[in-house]
Write a structure and sequence with these properties.
mainly beta, Neuraminidase, 4-stranded antiparallel sheet, binds calcium ion
């Protein structure tokens, strides 16, 4: 091998090993969006306060074109859309959540957006609850479904199904309802109470094999398969706000400004304070939501998944 070829393969190796340690991820915390890697959240933007009464931004999801959607508020939230360095807002009558810091979930397949909706006071419509679907293309009327539950988090699984964690209250999140996002039809209920007992759960993420990752206030991330078998438990210690599968990692945020990045088998994790990753975040630490990814469901055949997995 000639010298320039050697040099080139050395550079390629160096780039590869650097890439293998970098996780691309983002957070929503302190009414800011931060994006970057474990080496630093180099991009931070302020989320506009959506209402006259200050309501904090909650969870957020990133579309494949880089557009970011934020569950922005509590009793009268906006769907705040960040694209081309500019913000715009959408909303839906009666959309609201109980004001617990960890509540509020959002997911998207790049066209439709799903958000959790709970029963709250205020306008008469605010008592309505379930899952709200919003069409970013504005072609299909936005609507509410799953009106028999009050979800505190939801996720579009990498398997193409929509999972909602419910109810609120204490202990919260004892059940997961599964829906077909193509037609909002109900598929099944999974009882976390049957698996873990009478204990609370705060957030859910789901991989392409329908394995569920459940994040808890006591600091556990639990991996369970579609039949309810507990595969792994990882105790990261923090009071967890949110969990997502991003860039091939399980990433959770906690109550005090920390992010936990684990492998998909939950064999180990690294902990980062977001204030160390960018000084615009407060050293004191505030609740951290993980910026989830949209899921392209166009090549996923839902009928096949439930013929196999949900009988
Ligand atoms: Ca409501
Ligand atoms: Ca999230």
């Amino acid at each position: 091998m000639e010298r320039h070829q050697l040099k080139r393969s050395f550079i390629a190796l160096a780039l590869f090993s650097q890439a293998s340690f970098a996780t691309n991820f983002g957070v929503s915390s302190e009414d800011k969006l931060g994006q970057g890697t474990e080496a630093g959240l180099g991009t931070v933007v302020n989320i506009p306060v959506a209402n006259d009464i200050s309501e904090s931004a909650r969870d957020a999801v990133k579309l494949s074109d880089g557009t970011i959607l934020v569950y922005n508020g509590t009793f009268d939230p906006k769907l705040s859309v960040y694209a081309n360095n500019a913000w715009s807002d959408l909303t839906f009558s009666g959309w609201s959540t109980v004001n617990n810091g960890t509540y509020g979930g959002i997911a998207s397949d790049n066209r439709f957006v799903w958000v959790t909706d709970m029963s709250t006071g205020g306008d008469p419509d605010d008592a309505l609850h379930g899952i709200v679907q919003i069409d970013l293309d504005g072609q299909m009327p936005d609507f509410r479904f799953a009106e028999d539950i009050e979800p505190i988090d939801l996720t579009l699984g990498k398997d193409g199904l929509l999972y909602a964690l419910w109810p609120g209250g204490s202990p919260e999140g004892r059940f997961v309802n599964v829906y077909n996002p193509n037609d909002a039809s109900f598929i099944k209920t999974i009882s976390l109470a049957d698996i873990f007992g009478h204990t609370g759960h705060r957030s859910i993420a789901v991989d392409e094999n329908s394995n569920m990752y459940i994040a808890d206030w006591d600091g556990d991330i639990q991996m369970i398969d579609r039949n309810g078998n507990v595969l792994h438990t990882l105790d990261v210690g923090g009071s967890l706000y949110d969990v997502d599968i991003v860039d091939g990692k399980v990433i959770a945020g906690d109550r005090f400004g920390d992010v936990y990045i684990a492998d998909l088998q939950l064999q180990g994790y690294q902990e980062y304070a977001i204030s160390d990753l960018n000084a615009q975040f407060d050293d004191f630490g505030h609740g951290v939501f993980i910026l989830g990814d949209s899921v392209d469901t166009s090549n996923i055949i839902i009928d096949y998944i439930f013929a196999d997995d949900f009988e």
